[in-house]
Amino acid sequence: TDVELKRLKDAFKRTCGLSYYMGQHCFIREVLGDGVPPKVAEVIYCSFGGTSKGLHFNNLIVGLVLLTRGKDEEKAKYIFSLFSSESGNYVIREEMERMLHVVDGKVPDTLRKCFSEGEKVNYEKFRNWLFLNKDAFTFSRWLLSGGVYVTLTDDSDTPTFYQTLAGVTHLEESDIIDLEKRYWLLKAQSRTGRFDLETFGPLVSPPIRPSLSEGLFNAFDENRDNHIDFKEISCGLSACCRGPLAERQKFCFKVFDVDRDGVLSRVELRDMVVALLEVWKDNRTDDIPELHMDLSDIVEGILNAHDTTKMGHLTLEDYQIWSVKNVLANEFLNLLFQVCHIVLGLRPATPEEEGQIIRTLETDQIYTRN
């Protein structure tokens, strides 16, 4: 149905990106699952049209419909095609036995009945034998004896991918659907096919300073696999823009916690202050005391007032208390808010937010012209 096809297209896109091809390991893991014997899974992949380049989406759909909704006659023709000669007219006993040795490690005793009249059989004789011996080998048993558990639809109450993400973020389903479209457009610019730092950096810098690009990337890359998947960007944008203040501050803390040890060392604090001062100078013209202070004095002032452990660093809680009323930290939050909406594609939650973004853009354009 149209609904099933759309769901499968969405799943294929999430798994393979903008490519129309799915690799063998991905096919076995994401489509068939662990319940299918590995050798059978390899045979299915190749029989669907899978190559070293991958399996095309159209071929995947045709194969899945055959597996899940094909009649026994259609499945029998499919199995015959796996063993048949290049002409497709008959199956040679020696070739079938060799393939069964590879897949099952043995040849069923009943196979001799299939070739009782010679060393090759046509489809009709193969079919008649197969229907009498559905459990003869793993593949026939899996396909003809009710072993296929792969389905094209889901009648359970399991939430959709979008509902699941909406449940663990501050985003609505509609936000996530819109965001997904933007994500694939951004990822399409990648040279490697992954939304990695090489792709992410030029997108956000400017307006984000290059010194902060990697930290911002790491804040999104929650599992530290050096690329941002769609779930990570959704959760990151939610935390950065839609969550309560404490959650937004926690996201900023991750940007500055370069070594990811859960605290901001004196060196990380120094780098943070340098970056925050640059952000202020880039976006504001009003004067603040920090612009006229020595860098070391600013860092020591922060530690003296907020280092509760007295170990020369700030914990997340220390950072949150410091940043609540600090103009530099708040300006950085505002900058991230703009980047997340304008560059990364998060839709404004309210008309007020949209107006705020537009006004900031207009101000920036006037400032740039001057």
Annotate the secondary structure layout.
Layout: H1 2-16, E1 21-22, H2 24-32, H3 38-47, E2 55-56, H4 57-69, H5 72-83, E3 90-92, H6 93-103, H7 111-114, E4 120-122, H8 123-132, H9 138-144, H10 161-168, H11 173-187, H12 197-204, H13 210-220, H14 230-242, H15 245-256, E5 263-264, H16 266-283, H17 295-306, E6 314-315, H18 316-324, H19 327-342, H20 351-369
Antiparallel strand pairs: 1-2, 3-4, 5-6
Helix pairs in contact: 2-3, 5-8, 5-9, 10-11, 12-13, 13-15, 14-15, 15-18, 16-17, 16-19
What would you say about this model in short?
With 370 residues, the chain is mainly alpha-helical.
Give an overview of the whole structure.
InterPro entries: EF-hand-dom_pair, EF_Hand_1_Ca_BS, EF_hand_dom, Recoverin, USP32_N. This is Ubiquitin carboxyl-terminal hydrolase 32. The protein has 370 residues and is mainly α. It has two domains: 144 residues, Orthogonal Bundle (Recoverin, domain 1); 208 residues, Recoverin, domain 1, CATH 1.10.238.10. Helix content is 63%, strand content 4%. The protein has 20 helices and six strands. The strands form three sheets. A two-stranded antiparallel ribbon has the order 1-2. The protein has a two-stranded antiparallel sheet with strand order 3-4. The longest helix is centred in the C-terminal third of the chain and has 19 residues. It is elongated and about 100 Å long. The two termini are 57 Å apart.
Task: Summarize this structure as a short list of keywords or feature phrases.
2 domains, USP32_N, mainly alpha, Recoverin, repeat, about 375 residues, elongated, metal-binding, about 65% helix, 20 helices, two-stranded antiparallel sheet, Recoverin, domain 1, calcium ion binding, 6 strands
